[in-house]
Write a structure and sequence with these properties.
With 334 residues, this protein is α/β, with parallel strands linked by helices. 44% of the residues lie in helices and 14% in strands. It has a six-stranded parallel β-sheet with strand order 6-5-7-8-4-9. A three-stranded antiparallel β-sheet has the order 1-3-2, with helices on one face. The termini are far apart.
């Protein structure tokens, strides 16, 4: 089947750098395209061609409404729309009802995969959300974005960001300086996300007034957090006791988001991850959302997706090799 679509507002933002957006559309829907005099000809299976045409019609409508879209925005919308046939491009840009409009400060934040879209919706609909998956899949960044939106739209009065202070495979020893100076390197990814969305002066005021608080997990003990948006990042490095302590801090009119990557646990050998245990313990409690990301959700450099996949495959191979040797087979000489 072959259909053609007139492209509104030029082809630059639609095609993207090195035509990556159109290539994404082609690979996701298994169609081929050809640009002819401002029209895009699409060929392939009828159902897939119709989906591609619908996506491009929705793109044209956004352009006619005066939307200014860079090629990154278009790539994100096409990626989500091709993964979820029930999602429109406008829903990617403007999810939810007008009363729940999202405001991210100086940044425009849109989901870049269907799982990211589900994640943002889950945070809005649930008081507690667990997000588990590889680095670069947007777990922390989107959680901070949703926290900033909740603060700026007065759904909460403050944001509290926490991390367990665990060294990632290194022994840093004693570091000179104040407690805060020693803690800040562990918290830097959270500060980076905040500075990406809020003007430096505004964020500094929020930090001074305690409206935004970035602190090690240990500082949460003994507190009840009302009217707050609380994020526990790198939760795979919590102990069972720390995780239970954090989960029981939630107060009235508050939200909690717990993020982590269970393949990168830096706890001492023999200590079970509080995140792994919590997924088993609270997994059946109604009202808690669970989002599982994978390598397809990674939004860093394209090589990162391939590296994560390669490590996963290597881990599976190693597990099979060890299992076969455990069954009495002799490990080959090296």
């Amino acid at each position: 089947m072959r259909r053609t679509v007139q492209i509104a507002g030029g082809v630059e933002s639609l095609f993207g750098t090195l035509d990556e957006n159109v290539k994404l559309l082609e690979s996701a829907l298994r169609v081929t395209t050809q640009l002819q005099d401002g029209q895009l000809a699409i060929e392939g299976e009828a159902t897939q061609v119709d989906r591609a045409v619908r996506i491009l019609d929705e793109y044209n409508q956004l352009i006619r409404e005066g939307r200014r879209l860079n090629h990154g925005d278009v790539k994100a919308m096409i990626r989500v729309a091709t993964e979820d046939p029930n999602t429109t491009l406008k829903e990617v840009l403007q999810p939810g009802a007008p009363a729940r409009a999202r405001v991210f400060g100086k940044k425009s934040v849109t989901p870049k995969s269907s799982n990211q879209k589900l994640y943002m919706e889950a945070i809005e609909k649930h008081d507690m959300t667990f997000a588990v998956g590889p680095g670069g899949s947007g777990k922390t960044y989107l959680a901070v974005a949703m926290a900033v939106s909740a603060l700026l739209t007065k759904q909460v009065d403050r944001i509290i960001l926490a991390r367990p202070a665990v060294e990632a495979g290194e022994r840093l020893g004693f570091l000179p300086g104040t407690l805060q100076q020693n803690i800040d390197p562990y918290m830097r990814p959270l500060y980076d996300a905040l500075y990406d969305m809020l003007d430096a002066d505004k964020l500094e005021r929020f930090l001074e007034k305690g409206i935004v608080e970035v602190a090690p997990l240990a500082f949460m003990r003994g507190r009840t957090l009302n009217d707050s948006f609380v994020i526990l990042d790198e939760a795979q490095n919590t102990t069972s006791e720390q995780m239970k302590m954090f989960l029981t801090r939630l107060g009235f009119n508050s939200k909690a988001v717990i993020t982590g990557d269970v393949t990168q646990i830096d706890l001492p050998t023999g200590r079970r991850s509080g995140l792994v245990e919590a997924l088993e313990v609270v997994g059946r409690i109604p009202g808690i959302a669970f989002i599982n990301f994978n390598e397809r959700d990674v939004v860093r450099h394209n090589l990162v997706q391939q590296i994560i996949k390669a490590y996963d495959e290597f881990g599976v191979g190693e597990a099979r090799r060890k299992a076969s040797f455990g069954n009495g087979k002799t490990e080959p000489a090296k």
